[in-house]
Amino acid sequence: MRKLIVKMSVSIDGFVSAADGGKDWVFKTGDEESAAWSVDQIRQAGLIIMGRKTFETLAPYWPAATGPFAAPMNEIPKAVFTQKGFKGIDSGLEQSPAVASWAGARVFDGDLAAGIKELKAEPGKPIVAIGGAGFMQSLIATGLVDEYHLAIHPVALGSGLPIFGSAQMPLYLKLDEVKVFPKGVIAKTYRA
User: Fold this and answer.
1) pLDDT tens for residues 151-183?
2) Strand pairing category for 147-153 and 4-11
3) Are 183 and 34 within 8 A, CB to CB?
4) How far apart are CA 161 and CA 27, in angstroms?
5) How many CB atoms lie within 10 A of CB 110?
6) For position 84, what pLDDT does the model report?
7) Is the peptide bond before 123 cis (omega within 30 degrees of 0)?
8) Bridge partners (DSSP) listed for residue 177
9) Rounded to 5°, angle at Cα 80 from 100 and 186
């Protein structure tokens, strides 16, 4: 059975995005070393999963992108979870292996927990979940997350969207690893 890993950037006051959904603070507070750590977390995935909204935002962007995140985001298979239906993507780009990677994503439109159990039962490298607060809250509520890879950024947002907002509390975790990066980002790996 493969692991399910939640990978997120979080403010020091526990938010994954500002109240308006903005995430520019992640880029303002990160550095090359914290970005390399983040890319490494993605590279370890055998499957990247996300909610529909995140998928529809990322699918047109990544096939034409360059930089260290582009290769793993375009090469690793993906799955999208939706409750409101999914019509697929039209990136507007010429067909390429990167476009095909996004267009070929598996779609799960039923029970989230059942879909996660199905994916975890398959052989392969870990499943890495990325995305927004809503998808992460639903994912955490299933109780099926094995690890949390959190990059805690040195910024207090004051308000925003948390990922632990709907989790059964308290949620006890075991700290496995801590890394501190030059501009103050602290990467923490927790086991459930």
Assistant:
1) 999 999 999 999 887 666 788 999 999 999 999
2) parallel
3) yes
4) 17
5) 11
6) 77
7) no
8) 189
9) 105
Whether pTM > 0.85 for this model: the answer is yes
Structural tokens at position 109: 């439109």
Contacts of 27 (CB under 8 A, 6+ apart): none
Residue whose pair of structure tokens reads 């392969």 in the numeric block: 124
Q: DSSP letter string over the chain?
A: ---EEEEEEEETTSEEE-TTS--HHHHHH--HHHHHHHHHHHHT-SEEEEEHHHHHHHTTTGGG--STTHHHHHHS-EEEE-SS-------SSPP-HHHHHHHT-EEE-S-HHHHHHHHHHS-SSPEEE---HHHHHHHHHTT---EEEEEEES---SS-EESSTTS-SS---EEEEEEE-TTS-EEEEEE-
Which amino acid is residue 65, in one-letter code? Answer: A
Rounded Cα–Cα distance for residues 192 and 179 (Å):
19
Burial class (CB in 10 A: 0-12, 13-18, 19+), 77: middle
The pair phi, psi for residue 155, each rounded to 5°, is: -150, 135
Integer Cα distance of 160 and 77 in angstroms: 30
